[in-house]
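Supplementary material to the annual report.
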Amino acid sequence: MNKLKTLLLVIPVMIMVVSCGEDFTILAPQSERNVENFYRTDTDFLTAINGAYAGLASNNAYGRNYVLLHEMRSDNTSNGGGATGLAESLERITLFEELPSAGELERTWATAYSTIARTNTILDRIGNAELDNAALGERIRGEALFIRSLMYYNLAITFGNIPLQLEEVTSPEVEITQVSAGDVYAQIAGDLSTAEGLLAASYSGDNIGRATKGAAATLLGLVELTAGNKAQAATALQRVVDSNQYNLVPNYSDIWGVSNENNVESIFEIQYKSGGAGTGSGFTEYYSPDLSESGGVGGGNVPQAVNDETLTIFEGDDERGMGGSFGLTEADAEYLSKYDANQPNPFDSDANFIVFRYSDVLLMLAEAVGESAQGWGLINQVRQRAGLTVDAQTLPGTYNEILLLERRREFVGENKRWPDLKRFGVAQSVMADFLADEGKSESDIRLLYPIPQRELDSAPGRLNQNPL
Amino acid sequence: MKTVTLIRVIPVLVVLMAVSSIAPAQGFTQKQTAESTMPEMATYYSVKEYSKSIQELRNTISLNLENVPITNALIQIAQKAELEIAFDSKSFNEDDLISIENNAISVGDALELVLIDTGFESVITLRGEILLKEKQPESVEVADLDIDISGRVTDAETNEPIMGVTVFVVGTQTGTNTDSDGRFTLTIPDDSETLAFSFIGYVRQEITIGDQTEFDIQLATDIALLDDVVVVGYGVQRRTEVTGAVSSIRAEAIQGTPVSSFENALQGRLAGVNVAESTGEPGSAPQITIRGVGSISAGNEPLYVIDGVPISQNSNLQQNVGSQNSNFSATLVNPLATLNPNDIESIEVLKDASAAAIYGSRGSNGVILITTKRGRRESAPMINFRSYVGVNSAFNTPELMNAEELIAYTKDSRNNTYLRQQDPTNPNSAFFNPQYNPDTNAGREASGATGNHLIPEAYVNWDGTDTDWLDLVLDTSILQNYDMNVSGGGENFTYFVGGGFMDQTGIIDGSAFNRYSLNTNLTADISERFQVGLGLNAAFTTHDRKSANAPYFGNPPGIIYSALTQSPVVSPFNADGTYRQLEGSHNDLGGATTTTNHPLAVRDFIDERVNNNRVFGNIFGTYQLMDNLQFKSLLGYDIDNYQRSFYQGTQFFYRGGAPRPYAESSSAQGFNWLWENTMNYQTTLGEDHRLNAIVGFTAQKQNDERNRVIAQNFPDDQVKTVNGGQITGGDQLIEEWSLVSYLARINYVFKDRYLLTGTIRSDRSSRFGPNNQTGVFPSGSLGWLMTNESFMQDQTIFNEIKPRVSYGVTGNFLIPNYGSIGLISSSNYVFSDQLVSAAVPSTLGNAALTWETTHQFNIGLDYAMLEDRIYGSFDYYVSKTTDLLLEVNIPAVTGFTRALTNIGEVENSGFEIQVTSRNMVGEFQWSTDFNFSTNKNEVLALGPEGDAILVPGAAGVRHITEIGSPIGSYYGHRVIGIFNTQEEINNAPVDRLGTPTPGDFQFEDVNGDGVIDNNDRTLIGDYHPDYAWGITNRFNYKNVDFSFFFQGVEGRDVLNLTSRHLRNGEANFSSYAIVNNRWRSPSDPGNGIDPKAERASGGNNNRPSSYQVEDGSYIKLKTISLGYTLPQQLISNFARNVRLYATVTNVAIWTDYIGFNPEVNLSQSSGLTPGEDYGAYPLSRAFQVGIDISF
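Predicted assembly:
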């Protein structure tokens, strides 16, 4: 009897102790990958770099917020005024009154750095991984460097002095050091040169849309221009021209539309696809005045009307005006039609966003080489495609004024206007004129956005706020 | 031959009975066995008085004695009861024969019966020995003997005679007991005034004697009396010996209120247990917090333990509609609504750390122990049937403007903006227009008026339409419930089988809750020492949900908020009877009115159904290894299944836009198993020491799996399942957690006066970082039964005084399953127009992550006085939670914006008072239950730098959690008045956030720097009540019972976000009627609270401010109930007992809150943003009639 008692007691306890050893409480996620066991194979790194591209496409980057920060900020668009509620914080951006606590700034900053973190992790870990396809690994490094540089460029032109984080972070305790925009440009110029060497000249099959050598060189040119290094910019941009990979599309209007995506003029394009998978673009919503037919809300909280003045900047036969950049709504109202596309749900459109295209290279090269026969020639090359026959050199204004106006016509709605105004050094004068009715003077025009309050608060004493 | 009828056993706290009877008695009969030498001072209990409270005496035995000598009968009883017995056999005459035939008689009753005609009575010692004692001669005061009285005492409910009722003349020693037929005779002095009838488990009754000599007394069972034993974790304990803070509620108390789930019945009943009904959606969960909110980001819900099995809430298994903003997700269907309240026997709430520490890392938020009903041994089958039906209608509907008021308000708002911005009346203005007419748009557009200045045409030329939109969406609805159970037992088995069906429709047409439930509890004795048991609770519930917990712009939108925002000026229907969603609707008004949604379209074209199957229960075996050592092994299981489908149809025009049909189908299953092995040891050392110890080892694991498919682009509504459209998305998630624990507890009683309990548990959980997986949770408590001290014997006021004190440590493990691991989530990107998979790191791991630890100190007092006429408890507690799990903001440079860390401290402290008072006894009975509790919540430490946490809720940042204030306090500007004149504005600090004009708010310059800016935001209230209370009054007169129940909270504020639209002065929607009392001019300043009407206020009146924070204190007449028990003679043919009753729930509310429900709480899952009202399903008033029958 005593034996039985002992057995009755001991057996269950034994079974339990055995079955509930240390491993019993070591459980790894099953339907989510985790940092410990990822970043090992070719496929891991490929999906990881795809994740970095997804960061570029985010609504907090090219998908939406850059429209607010780099286009809506400029004189290309006007706000209806009297905004209330959610639209108010957008109106503040147009009036250079945005608050450091604005959600748009917070999310733009955070998404840029999380995309950068994705590339940092790839760059840190790819060296130690034994990949089956070494060439693929090199390309992924190039893509990571390109994406990181593109994000840093956007952060630098938006916020100016920012932390430069180039390594993976594994603990919340991180040292933060703010550096100047110039330091950022220097770093990414170097990274882009490396990337250019690693990237493919072009892609086919399933890879169309990845960063190319041309994309890296174009961004390098832009970065050097922004940093004031025109000679280096010219060299980089000339490499793009000389690569013979790109050309102007004969008709300006053929650049646009879902059927014309990734055309010969396109150098780097953020790829979007609607359908509720989180891969649609948000900017169609911002420009199309009546999306109710395609399922969007339309108008809503978004005061993103291209203003009347912008419609008047085009010379007579300029194909970039009506029919090129603009269309008419059913109510005969003009609107920016570059991003017309199928949109089954709000902020979920098929339209791609072109970050760089060949005419940008030509005009940046014209900017880099300065007033010269080559410069005028480059400007005229872009004008001729637009159906303009008048030689730019005969137009009133200085070389830079003509070039800037040409860029405005060419790139309306492409998030270039505000960086252009800054790069050409006329941001404050132009915007003060534009906002004279609102009582703004040059001193009211902020060249940099405030650093998000959230960042100042979460790293006390580590970041200096921009002038408000 | 004597046949004994079993008295209905009502477990009772016995020490509350006459304390004097505990005094050592003289006159033992000679001892028969040598070892049972009882010292003179032995403590023993009278069997007669304690037969209902001592387990050994309550145990039932089967007796079949026919004409046996008393000596033999006693020995047989002792053998069957497994008790020692000691007596002198010579005390009894061999010829005195006795017959008892009863197969389920309690030991106590058997002893009573055998000795009834002898000169002895029996007592039981602490060791479980039966001794005999000579009966005390009844006090006889010959001189005064005057009157002979007699009578019979029966149970008011069952009409059965009650044996052993003490009948005595109040204020004298004269008394007797009733016999087995309930009869008594007594000779009393002629000056006797009052006769008292007292019996354990029944309400004491006093009768004025007068000229009466024959008494027919019906005693009512006293359901308010305390249990003699209470369920504590891993066992039961005598209530007198409990040293922690434990509140109990018995089945009768919760079944008096017809509710869909037991938690609703707890509201206002127990001190320190706060139940908030934030939504009236059928089958949704109320929120329960015990002793305040101790956690910021981990869960605050208590641990539920049903029949020994800790049950997970599994709220992660219920998925939300993917298109919905997470702030507006539907309220959870109640995971515990699968448990039929009528299957519950008792509920115990373990409030302090001493009681809860046995649940270790899950005890911080308190523990709710639920015991379901089971059969009784050796009892005939008992059948109970309960049913009620009811009608519900909306409760506390807010007052809105009618069409005329809204028209005036809208014109006011447009005109004020027009006059301020472009002043058409000023000849010097560029917009000067003599045509300006405040009632029309004449010439306005020509004079530069924009949308904000135009009066909607429908308001200028009102066609008389005055739609009551709330009335359109709020209907009356039906509730019905049927329960039946059968229970009983034999010599070595018990059974209980209960089934129920509940069908409740909601006051929003189309919403409903259905439950089919089955509860079974079986036990069987395999041998004398080996018992097995099985418990099974299975239920199938369906929840038809209608979107209500969202504002008009939610996706799907909230029906209630959509109805609130619709202008009464527009008609809901087109000429053909269809819903007006486009032309002529609110969306078509113009004048910069905001688009909203047609509430009936939301109701009818959007469907959601959640089915929940849940099966849980246990299988256990106990083995008596030695007489005082028991081993128990228990296997618990819980299978929880959800099936959810959502469909938004093609006829729904979201805010006047194009239809966007959308469907989701999701399913989830949770499986939880528990294996628990415990060893229980009880012993008595000498006379003074009693010890009860338990040690155990448990393992538990939960596996969850869920998946979802999303479809869009439905061409029509013919097929509403996902295959009717195009599948556009889907996901699947598998998660697990596991827990391994060791536990031990010791209860020690010294001299029946000094009580000590110590517990310890160690938990190892998968949820925490590999560096920090194991936690140890000790607790200790002491109690002193003062009334057992000799110096207390002479007082007669108190039956019980028991001071107690406890201290202990508990944990909170309600954090994400993989919070310690850096996760990589899936994403998508596009190359060559094809989706490609992408991986993105989604969380930053933290290998050091561990539980939140709560240290709680509790000091309390249990008391009972005036022969139990008043009893209750006081408690004071301080609990401090450290290592608060906090999603802290981290610099985005890390790649992440938030990381889960153990930082921060919160303190909760409060008083609790619980009083039950039997104010009147006798034929007319009146008793009162009262409870009152306070709680103060204060954050003591936060984050590495102690920075306040500002968290955006449903409408931007309006909550702050900062050191020195309650968790999730409201944050914004404080309105200090309304500017009456421009001069006042000029003299006030400059408002950087607006340009106020007369009629706009003046905000406080909190930091005194002379300007109003974001730095002047401050604390403007919080959701946590300062105190909560409940009071129930019950009355009984003959067959009629009546009760009413008030309940309330004080010091709670509500963040009424609906004020952002319905009370904002902009008049772009309908509006609360209170805005009729707005500021109009310096000479007509209105109520001083509501500012002027302005479509585009320059003063930015709508900024987050105290204007949107309202007092949510309330007093609610929660229940009135009237019952009638049919007289026995009417029903004796077919039933044991029949009670008919009518109940009204949510009778009336007194509150200053202008919305529907001051308990509203939009984001129930977030402790950081409590108390928001952005539209919610209203509570309903219910009229119910019901019948309870037992056979």
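The longest strand of chain B covers residues 726-750.
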